């Protein structure tokens, strides 16, 4: 078959409303060289006809930058959570199966509510609290070796893929997940962010924190940005142990 007549098949798990049942719907999309999953979904949006030739509603999904920076277009593609903007059709087994991430509540079709992840970031204060009402001048400089690995941690785009891959993040667990833990390491390493270091460590030692990690290492294998998540988890385990000893023996003792 020539490329002019070639089609690809997408089997999409759909859900009309957050409280409705899910169902599968198949679509045939004209093939184009170098097309990704997003472009295939856009083709369906332009012409919402399913594989049976029946008119249907356009598929709903989230997207933003289309260059693996915003993290919005995460979904499960052929059984693996990933970014749909960088999932090339030519590299995927046919038919292509698209599902919403199961860790988060489904809003509609492939779009999910990632509030659980953002609430975890709030819990660990994954930011530097400066009010910005007056000029503080230039901040302290970071050592070059620290800056380099901190930059790797800063690549997190809150896509939720690591939470979807983690077996310990589920409806029966309060585990905050690897993304939030890695962000604690990032902001605690910052010369200004370390002002709230103890507060963040206390959050990791609380309910849903580091103790819930089962060390499956699925997160680091699935992260689209290659962030060393398990290294961060190990580093934060060490930091919380030191912090607990300091709390036990008193702040005047060095560990």
Automatic annotation (TrEMBL):
- Give the enzyme's EC designation: 1.3.5.1
Q: Which cofactor does it need?
A: [4Fe-4S] cluster; [3Fe-4S] cluster; [2Fe-2S] cluster
A GO MF term: metal ion binding
Say yes or no: keyword Oxidoreductase present: yes
**Which domain of life does the UniProt lineage start with?**
Bacteria
**What GO biological process, any one, is recorded here?**
tricarboxylic acid cycle
Q: Which residues form the 4Fe-4S ferredoxin-type domain?
A: 147-175
Quote the SUPFAM superfamilies the UniProt record gives.
2Fe-2S ferredoxin-like, alpha-helical ferredoxin
Sorted UniProt keywords: 2Fe-2S, 3Fe-4S, 4Fe-4S, Iron, Iron-sulfur, Metal-binding, Oxidoreductase, Tricarboxylic acid cycle
Leading EC class: oxidoreductase
The protein's matches in InterPro entries, at most eight in alphabetical order, are given as: 2Fe-2S_ferredoxin-like_sf, 4Fe4S_Fe-S-bd, 4Fe4S_Fe_S_CS, Beta-grasp_dom_sf, Helical_ferredxn, SDH/FRD_Iron-Sulfur, Succ_DH/fum_Rdtase_Fe-S, Succ_DH/fum_Rdtase_N
Q: Member of which family?
A: Belongs to the succinate dehydrogenase/fumarate reductase iron-sulfur protein family.
State what protein this is by name.
Answer: succinate dehydrogenase
The lineage is: Bacteria, Bacillati, Bacillota, Bacilli, Bacillales
